Amino acid sequence: MSLFGATDSAIAEDIGDRLKTLRLDRNYSQKELCELTGLSIKAILNAEKGKSNIVTYIKILRALNCLDHLENFIPKPGISPMQIVKSSSKKRIRASNKKQTQTSGRKRVRKSDEDRTQTE
C-alpha cells in the first residue's frame, strides 16, 4: 500500500490489518491477546480495524513481542553531517574576566580618591 495517496482512515485500517496479521502469525486468538494485554475484546477489535490509540497499539505489540517494530515506525534521526562538523571543530577557550592584581594588604586608592582628599 502506498501511503502517500492514501487517506488517514485507509492508513489506520492498514495498520490494523498488519496488527491482525502479526497476531495470527503468532497463533494468538483475540481472547488470548486480551488476557496478555489486559485489554477488552472490543479494544482488540477496534485496534485491528485501525480505530484505536497509540497506547493500545503499544500494549498489543508488547504482548506479541514486536515492540522492535516501532523502531521502523518513526526512526530516530541520525546525526547530520553538519552536526558532525560542528562537534568535531575546536571549541573556543575564553579568557576569564577576573584580573589578577597584587595588593599589599592596604586599601587600594584610586587617583580620583586621592585628589578629593587633598582638596578637602
UniProtKB/TrEMBL annotation:
Q: Which InterPro entries match?
A: Cro/C1-type_HTH (IPR001387), Lambda_DNA-bd_dom_sf (IPR010982)
The protein's matches in PROSITE patterns, at most eight in alphabetical order, are given as: HTH_CROC1
SMART domains xref list: HTH_XRE
UniProt lists compositionally biased (Basic and acidic residues) regions at: 111-120
Q: Which GO terms describe its molecular function?
A: DNA binding
Q: Where is this region: Disordered?
A: 85-120
Q: Where is the HTH cro/C1-type domain?
A: 19-70
- What domain of life is recorded for the organism? Bacteria
Name the Pfam families on file: HTH_3
Compositional bias segments (type: Basic residues): 88-97
Record's protein name: HTH-type transcriptional regulatory protein
Q: What organism does this protein naturally occur in?
A: Desulforapulum autotrophicum (strain ATCC 43914 / DSM 3382 / VKM B-1955 / HRM2)
